[in-house]
Amino acid sequence: MTRNLKLTLSYDGTDFSGWQVQPDAPTIQGTLASAIGRLTGENVLPQGSGRTDAGVHALAQVATFSTSSSVPAQNFVKALNDILPASIQILDVAEMPGEFHARKSACAKTYRYRIYREPICPPFLVRYVWHFPYPLDEAEMSKSAAPVVGEHDFTSFAAVDPERGTENREASNVRTIFSSAFERQGEELIYTVRGSGFLHHMVRNLVGTFILVGKGTLKPADIRRILEARDRSVAGATAPASGLFLVNVEY
Fold it and tell me: What is this structure's pTM?
């Protein structure tokens, strides 16, 4: 009997070339597939809720795969964690109906971006933040986060990626953002965004643009203009991958 298993996993993406399997580079998907294969003897490719980029982290990514193995779901947790590197850990395994799919069944995702504001960044934090010790008007940045809430065409904040060019032309760049806000937590300025889905580099491009507001190059009102332009060249640079975390996926 074939079973459909849902994995919830957490990972430090620093040393991986993103989620999607690649022939000559370590990836989350490839490492996970190898571990499952060692455990079940099957050749499977787990499908994630989305493809996190190289260097991006996850607190609770979700993946699904089919297996004929009779290993109880919860036994997969310890067995896979014994095989996987310490930088990838399985948090939970659950048996799901056959039609459940990590990406297609998702209804919302939350991402968090961490900006470290002090002059010196502790070495043990540098992999998990964007160290930005320069002057920023954080109040203006907070104002700039609000205009992206709602349903918009986010072409201005989508990566111009030759590899995904065809995909982006065929698919809509319209997404719905449910919440978008900055908050100060100690030495960090943290941006949290929850939406129906996200385009390639979308959160990092939003953060790079909000930084321009903080520097005074743009005003909060410019965010709406940038959205309406549907032109990547009018938005800010892509923020570094190190500060971005996929927080959770909702179904």
Answer: 0.94
